[in-house]
Structures are given as structure tokens and as C-alpha cells.
Amino acid sequence: GTAVRTSQWACGAGRGVGSASSGLWDLLGNAMVMTQFIRLTPDVQSKQGAVWNRVPCYLRDWEMQVHFKIHGQGKKNLNGDGFAIWYTKDRMQPGPVFGSKDNFLGLGVFVDTYPNEEKQQERVFPYISAMVNNGSLTYDHDRDGRPTELGGCTAMVRNLNHDTFLVIRYVKRRLTVLIDIDGKHEWRDCIDVPGVHLPRGYYFGTSSVTGDLSDNHDIISLKLYQLTVERTPEEEKRDREVFLPVVDNLKLPGMEAPLEPMSGLALFLIVFFSLVAIVFAIVIGIIIYNKWQEQSRKHFY
Questions:
Q1: Which of 57, 220, 256, 300 is the most exposed place for a label (fewest CB within 10 A)?
Q2: Is 198 helix (H, G, I), strand (E, B) or coil?
Q3: pTM of this prediction?
């Protein structure tokens, strides 16, 4: 059935993060509270900032609406780097992935405003993508996270005069990301991935970073809604608790079990028996060939 949106502000999100409920949020790095928004980074080089909720979220099905604004002096493709929205086990840990830690446990949705991979031509930036990590994967910054992304879309979100929104919806193990960036107040599909298993009790946050290029990355509001859905008994079984983030049928680099390196003895025996087999085959071949020669001689006489 369809999801019913009920209590807002479960898990301590909701209202403008800079307002009365800001006791539930912690700022990190260069993030600053302004009157109407939180500025994760100013339009200045080499800054990083984040805001994290203090309350772990135990909702089973939820929707996070993000009202944001990215703007700056930089001309097209001379701005960066974007921001991330997180639902992760760890919070308040700075790092290289849009200002937050790598090898995270949980979900990251990235609004990437600068293409680091120079060779690619087919992807237009800014680009939104999603990644689920069980702690073993590294975000490949040089390739804009392509090796581990679950899906994505182009989203022209810089220097706009109208409001820009993004929503992350997690219902019945299905992760969808929708955007409203054209000033039409309509949600547009961006990412849709079934079979996403996220543990409960993780934290919501958002972080941003600037490098040689910069932008103002502003969060106007983060609103979390609890979604109420009915499940069949089969869906109940399928959606039971998980303790590590995982995506069904996903083949990613580093997810395959590494092959055990062969011991020296095993390698020696394989080579030895292969050689024996080859010699054996040659000997048999020579014998058969000689027999055949004799047979054909007999036919001539």
C-alpha cells in the first residue's frame, strides 16, 4: 500500500535546524548558524562543516526532506565541491567524503557540484548520487564515487533564484531520492533502488567541503517524517532487522570474497601434475601415431 506520512520531527529532525530545536543538533568545523539557515561552508577555499542530529533514529520507514541552497561567485565548473546527506552509525567525524569520514556504515547521498574525473564526458554536473557502505568500501573521490554508486541524476542546483529541495525516502527496503529544483513544486525521480537494508539507530547529518574551488552550501531545513505502511507477513519477514547495511544483488568492487593466495606446495603440486599429464599425453600420442603408421604400411603391402 501507499505510505502515510505521519509524525514530523521524530528522531529530533524537523523545523529549521537553526531554530528552537537546535539543541538536538551539533555543529562541526566551519558550519555556522545564520538567522534563516545553517551555512555548512562559506564561499571560501579549504573549508569543511557539518551538522549532525544527536538522537539516533529508530524509525523503520521514513522520509527526509532537505531544503538547501548552493550559490557562489565561481563560474560554471569553477565551483565546489558539494554536500552530502548522511544516515550513518558514526556522527561528528570529519573526513575526505564531502567533509565526513570514509569507510562509513550506512547511507550517503551526495550532491556533487564538481567533476573530478577529467576523461568522462557523458555525465553532466552537478550530479546527485547515493552509496550504501558496510564499512569496507572507499569513496573514490577521483572518479566522483562512480565505482560504488547505486544510481544518480544530473541536477542543476547552483545559483538559482527559487527554492531547491531533495527528499530521501526509505520505505519497505526501497530507497528513492526525488528532487524539486525547477521551481515548479513537483518531485522528479532521481534514484530508485530496491533491496536496501539499513539498520535502525543510526544518525542523520549533512556535511560539505570546499577545496581549491568553493561555494556557499546552505541548509535551510531538514525535516524528517515517519512513514506508516502496511506489510504482508512475507514483507515482514523480508524486512526484518539488519545489523550491517547491505544492498541485495549488488556487485561492487571489494564486495567479492578475496581468493585465498595459494601456498607454495599447492602451486608446486599443480605445476608438477600438469607437466606429468602433458608428458603422459605426448607419450600416448606417439604410441598411437606409431600404431597408425604400422597399420597404414600394412595396407600398402
A1: 300
A2: coil
A3: 0.80
